[in-house]
């Protein structure tokens, strides 16, 4: 039986890597998939999803006002039977699009696997995540760790000094080095100004020359 799945996590937990691996498993068995990605996320070029470890695949971009049920029906009409739909960065779905994703499951009998963040840098739910948590048939957390060693469940946006940024738009594409996954306890300390983050190096350090 087809289901709507929501795989959620903090940042840099390997959501896209897991999505691409799952899609590969379908293709390995001769089954056709459709990967969807929000049009506002253009970090890797138009029509492409990519993971931090170098995996990538073609994807169908969609704007916030596109009907996902109609999109999937059109894809089937043009290209034939479809066995699974994957949604990357699912936190950016609208309420209507989460409902349409559930229609893909309920009307067409096609499983939908959505991958995304649960909360933003203020600790508040994204719209897409809110309704996926409410309506998905199955929820699964993809775990990652805080620099303290605890499980990371939240995301902070930091400035160049590692201090928390608490104002600004909810969505800020790019600049991933400004977002850090932390535990709830660490999120409180950093947000209250009693803690800070040592920003990660963007490249591996060179070893000392002999």
TrEMBL record:
Substrate binds at residues 171-174, 179. InterPro entries: P-loop_NTPase, Thymidine_kinase. It comes from the Bacteria. Its main location: cytoplasm. The active site is at residue 89. It is found in: Cytoplasm. It catalyses: thymidine + ATP = dTMP + ADP + H(+). Its EC number is 2.7.1.21. GO terms for molecular function: ATP binding; thymidine kinase activity. One of its GO terms (biological process) is thymidine metabolic process. ATP binds at residues 9-16, 88-91. It is an enzyme of class 2 (transferase). Keywords: ATP-binding, Cytoplasm, DNA synthesis, Kinase, Nucleotide-binding, Transferase. GO terms for cellular component: cytosol. PANTHER family: THYMIDINE KINASE (PTHR11441), THYMIDINE KINASE, CYTOSOLIC (PTHR11441:SF0). Belongs to the thymidine kinase family. Homotetramer. This is Thymidine kinase.
């Amino acid at each position: 039986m087809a289901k709507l799945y929501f795989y959620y996590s903090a940042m840099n937990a390997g959501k896209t890597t897991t999505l691409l691996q799952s899609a590969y498993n379908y293709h390995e068995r001769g089954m056709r998939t459709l990967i969807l990605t929000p049009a506002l996320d253009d970090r890797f070029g138009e029509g492409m999803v990519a993971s931090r470890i170098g995996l990538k695949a073609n994807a169908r971009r969609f704007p916030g006002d596109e009907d996902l049920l109609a999109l999937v029906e059109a894809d089937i009409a043009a290209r034939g039977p479809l066995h699974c739909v994957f949604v990357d960065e699912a936190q950016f779905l609208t309420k209507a699009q989460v409902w349409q994703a559930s229609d893909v499951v309920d009307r067409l009998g096609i499983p939908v696997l959505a991958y995304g963040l649960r909360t933003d840098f203020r600790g508040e739910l994204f719209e897409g995540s809110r309704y996926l948590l409410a309506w998905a048939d199955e929820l699964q957390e993809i775990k990652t760790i805080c620099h303290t060693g605890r499980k990371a469940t939240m995301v902070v946006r930091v400035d160049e000094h590692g201090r928390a940024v608490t104002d600004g738009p909810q969505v800020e594409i790019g600049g991933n080095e400004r977002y850090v996954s932390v535990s709830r306890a660490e999120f409180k300390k950093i947000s209250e100004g009693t803690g800070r983050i040592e920003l990660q190096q963007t490249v591996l350090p060179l070893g000392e020359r002999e």
